[in-house]
Design a protein that fits this description.
CATH topology of the largest domain: Rossmann fold
Number of domains: 2
CATH class of the largest domain: Alpha Beta
Strand content: 15-25%
Order of helices and strands: EHEHEEHEHHEEEEHHHEHEEEEHHH
Distance between the termini: 29 Å
CATH superfamily of the largest domain: Vaccinia Virus protein VP39
Number of strands: 14
Structural class: alpha/beta
CATH architecture of the largest domain: 3-Layer(aba) Sandwich
Amino acid sequence: MKSLEIFSGAGGLAKGLELSGFQHAAFVEFNKHACASLCENFDANKVFFGDIKDFDLDALEGVDVVAGGPPCQPFSLGGKHKADQDSRDMFPYAIRAIEQLTPKAFVFENVKGLLRASFADYFEYIILRLTYPGFTARQGADWKDHLHDLHSIGSLSYAGTKYDVSFKLINAANYGIPQTRERVVIVGTRADLGISWSFPAETHSEDRLLWEMYMTGEYWKRHQVPKSERAPMTELLQEKVARLKDKYGMFEPEGAPWRTVRDALHGIPDPESPHGIEDHVFHDGARTYPGHTGSDIDWPAKTIKAGGHGVPGGENMIRYPDGSVRYFTVCEAKQIQTFPDSFVIKGAWGEAMRQIGNAVPVLLGETIGRELASRLGAQSDSFDARHEYRVRL
């Protein structure tokens, strides 16, 4: 099955879909450094460097899935919160791709801020536009007028393509990514295919991590960390462990533990030691300040951030039990975002960190991709069986 990646970034979601069995039809990306990364890791002939407004969708055939991350600055908790009034809002162009290509499915990822109450009407508009991509606005109508018309679509004669659309606020840590990263994932399947979609079941939990830390001690044994080198338990952590005992008693939580920074970086040498890893370069100057304290080594990392103007935010640091901090290297940030070791991020350190911070964790993309491929494959098998039955008749 073929996938088109729009707003591709460095290719985190694209790599995840590739690992789940999809073949890339094309990549569309505006940032030159991200395009350089795409060309390094995928077929450079399929990378379009430029504005999606200038990309010829008609040149593509047989695209099964459209995927990507429409620029999130209009909805970011740290941005100016302009939503539809922000020229960087690219959702209209994502919808245009769905309308023209009529793929079997689409997958879009965006920031948690998209669900902010002040954006509720516009988010509903996005979902309805994705549901009825061929229902265009009346001449001269703004998005609010269009939303009003979409509310009445049941009484209108809409004969265009329809999609069944679902969305979920996902914490990447619950799927085995060593990072507490919350993002909205939107998945749509073409209604005529009759696909029943549900998001993959969560596989990892905070409860299991706490259990292995403070009930069985397995976590510390696995990493050979003596008590003297563990961070002291905070009051909040003590309360969580107490509740854990009440909740589970003698029965351990199901599933796997959240993966921590220590888990993710196991086997990677200190960046200041001789190692020969090209993108594992130490950068000095890391410091904490209010609201930016770094990511504890024995907890999933805080969200890897893109930072302003290509400079990594203050959370892109590792914090040790003694309170000391240092910046993540590009190599380490890739591990936190579950990129393969061989994946190359082009650009200087700040630019590389920006690309990594903007990316969808590869493992999350793969997990969603495998579920989608399974559903689409089942639909295809069902269609083939029905067709074979008709032929025999």
